[in-house]
Amino acid sequence: MSKSNLVTDAAAEFKGRATKKQKLQAVLHKYPWVSSAVVLVFAIFIFSFGNENFLTPNNLSLILQQTAVIGAIAAGQTLIILTAGIDLSCGAIAIFASMVMAKTAFVNGWPGWAAFMLGIAVGTGAGAFNGWLITKINLPPFIVTLGTYNVFSALTLFYATGRTIMDKELEPFFLYLGNPIPLGEFRITYGVLLVIVMYLILAFSLRYTGWGRHVYAVGDDIEAARLAGIQVKRVLMSVYVTAGFIFAVTSWVIIGRVAAASPNSGSNLNLDSITAVVIGGTSLFGGRGAIFGSLIGAVIVGVFRNGLTLAGVDLYYQTFAVGVLIITAVSIDQWIRKAGV
Amino acid sequence: MSKLVAPVLEAKNLVKTYGRVVAIDGSDLQLFPGEILAVVGDNGAGKSTMIKCLSGAETPDSGVMELDGKPTTFRRQKDSRDAGIETVYQTLAVSPALDIAANLYLGREIRKKGPLGSIFRMLDNSGMKKSAKEHITALGIGTIQNMSQAVETLSGGQRQAVAVARAAAFGQKVIIMDEPTAALGVRESGQVLKLIQSLRARGLPVILISHNMPQVFEVADRIHIQRLGKRIAVVTPKSHTMNEVVAVMTGALILDVKDQTLGPVR
Ligand SMILES: Nc1ncnc2c1ncn2[C@@H]1O[C@H](COP(=O)(O)OP(=O)(O)OP(=O)(O)O)[C@@H](O)[C@H]1O
Ligand SMILES: [Mg+2]
Fold first, then answer.
1. For residue range A42-83, what is the model confidence (pLDDT) as tens digits?
2. Where are the extended beta strands (E) located within A177-266?
3. Which of A189, A329, A332, B90: disulfide with A279, CB 3.0–4.6 Å?
């Protein structure tokens, strides 16, 4: 051993001794979304025995449509959770932006694209406001977004005067995302396609750009990132602004999906998006996870709800099952994190 | 050391408080071209705070800093880095979940050439891995083979080696190291000391904070002694013994900074 080498020696020794359990732990540590993908495949397998209608193109299309909205919100939520933050106001931002779009178009007679742009600006601005409170006033994300969740919800009700705008009143532009793309027996809507494209762009940015690397570094250890010369506040701000933009785009998906804009909808979006992110293997402690995991997480929740419904299981038990999923996902995350120490 | 040369980096009367804690209390520091300046002092003497001010990681409450004789203010860490100052922090400032190459290039990532880099902003990961490996190998701290290994899977000493390699690789003007050998074994400590000496040979001045007196006496040109937030003396390994330095550091001896003669505690 002339070229004695501490690292490789130690690594070789480790490999030699690693049990199956440790190897699994190491794989999951590197690819945290793997366990959720396994759960998804397993769930689809089981539910396909529960009801013959489950594995039909019709039903699978329905699941995708049902999960598109949560999936879209979860994309923005993932960015924030990767920085060790949390956004409790995401659903409120999306609904606020959807009401702005629908009301300026219907009540004020704006052309569809102009109303859409205003809605996007409002949603992005709302995200920027969260980011400003977090980076400039130095408040914890949980508190900031708990506060702005109430503020944005109140503003929505105030602005919409409690009124739902139905599809006949809406411009076709807003309903566009609800249209299906003809793909054999599948009815994938443009909304679903938009969400998938959004995930592809985010996955690319997180994985291959310096910005993505900085997002992970800030979530991993914010002080280390700062001392390594990363402008952490700028990174955090960019994340909250991007997330606000994503939530605003989601409002378009929402209108297309339910063919209406209602100030009272979407109260469960806030927590459901966190559920999707957590089940998708992204760590609530930040710095670890993959964005596609969140899409898988959203689909898992959709598959569970749909599969259990088809199997004739009560809603209570469905909710119970989702609860068990969350706790299992976080337990796996804790277990995986041990591999790193 | 001849005082005819102008210092590369100079701090005058720096003060930094954290709430009611006075971390540095009117401290000075001078670093001359091509020298190794050791900074010693008891725990809590304000050594780390001092170098954090010099590297822009903290902003001093008052006092001035000069780089090449020009007044300078670093508002963030990146400012000092852009000025060619590289720092190994006591806390290492490495990101545990990122791999070695990513850590080496953290905050100064290199993009791919051509439109992939300029339009799509893609990082040149293979290029960064390759040169990361060269830098780590150059350090001679066991050849850490796999640049894709997450830093959290390294031992404490190996992590320290990554932080030291990072500073050595990118330092252009000044290199600051806050206890760079604290977690290292005997052989690895020797390697880092050799590295520090080779940096000096390249003409780069180094500030070395250390509690290890034999190491300090081995490499330092001058020794800056910090006590209770102030620089209380500057000596050289030739002019004073280890015991004297320790005595000054702990307050058992008082040394007049100007004529540097020893005197008993009054
Ligand atoms: N972020 C901070 N917040 C509050 N107090 C701090 C902070 N950083 C340092 N201090 C205080 O400032 C003083 C000097 O700390 P500093 O870390 O500079 O000491 P040091 O000389 O580097 O000590 P050591 O040899 O233990 O590393 C200490 O009393 C410490 O408690
Ligand atoms: Mg210190």
1. 889 989 988 889 999 999 999 998 899 999 999 999 999 999
2. 180-183, 186-189, 260-261
3. A329
Contact between residue A225 and residue A214 where contact means Cβ atoms under 8 Å apart: yes
The confidence band for B204, taking pLDDT boundaries of 50, 70 and 90, is: very high
Distances (CA, A) of A9 to A26, B145, B184: 18, 10, 17
Q: How far apart are CA A278 and CA A327, in angstroms?
A: 9
Cβ–Cβ under 8 Å, residues A335 and A288 = no
What's the predicted TM-score (pTM) here?
A: 0.91
**For B52-76, how does the pLDDT look when each residue is reduced to its tens digit (9 = 90+)?**
999 999 999 999 999 999 999 999 9
Partners of B71 in the beta sheet?
Answer: B66
Residue B111, beta-bridge partner list: B123
Mark out chain B residues that contact chain A at CB-CB < 8 A: 57, 76-78, 81, 87, 89, 91-98, 102-103, 106-109, 111, 120-123, 141-146, 149-150, 152-155, 158
The two tokens of residue A247 are: 């939530």
**ipTM of the prediction:** 0.90
Outline where A18-136 has alpha helix (H).
20-30, 34-50, 57-82, 90-106, 112-135
Give the containing element (helix H, strand E) for A150. helix A141-160
Please, what sign has the CA dihedral across residues A272, A133, A229, A202? positive
The conformation of residue B180, written as its DSSP 8-state character, comes to T
Considering the domain A32-330, what is its CATH architecture? Orthogonal Bundle (1.10)
Domain locations in chain A? Answer: 32-330
Ligand 1 atom 18, closest CA: B46
Name the DSSP letter for residue B123.
B
Say if CB A100 and CB A266 are below 8 A apart: no
Whether B94 contacts B159, CB under 8 Å: yes
Question: What value, to the nearest 5°, has the Cα angle with vertex A214 and ends A212 and A219?
Answer: 105
Q: How far apart are CA B174 and CA B179, in angstroms?
A: 16
Q: Which two tokens stand for residue B107?
A: 């905050």
Place of tokens 């199997």: A311
A232 sits in which H/E element? helix A232-258
List the single residue in B with minimal CA-CA distance to A12. Answer: B145
Which positions in chain A touch B97 (Cβ < 8 Å)? 216, 220, 287-288, 340
Question: Relative to the alpha carbon of B47, which ligand is closest?
Answer: 1
In whole angstroms, what is the distance from residue B97 CA to residue B23 CA?
Answer: 31
Closest CA to A228 of B62, B98, B194: B98
Q: Rounded CA gap, B198 and A198, in Å? A: 50
User: The CATH number of the domain where B114 resides is what?
Assistant: 3.40.50.300
Q: Measured between alpha carbons, how far is B227 from B204 in angstroms, rounded to an integer?
A: 27
Extract the tokens encoding A105.
């178009």
| Beta carbons within 8 Å of A78's beta carbon, 6+ residues apart | A202, A277, A280, A282, A289, A291, A293, A294
Q: How many CB atoms lie within 10 A of CB B150?
A: 20
Q: Nearest C-alpha of chain B: how many angstroms from A229?
A: 5
Nearest by Cα to A37 from A326, A339, A293, A308? A293
> Looking at the 3D structure of chain B, how many domains does it have?
1
Residue A197 Cα to chain centre, angstroms: 14
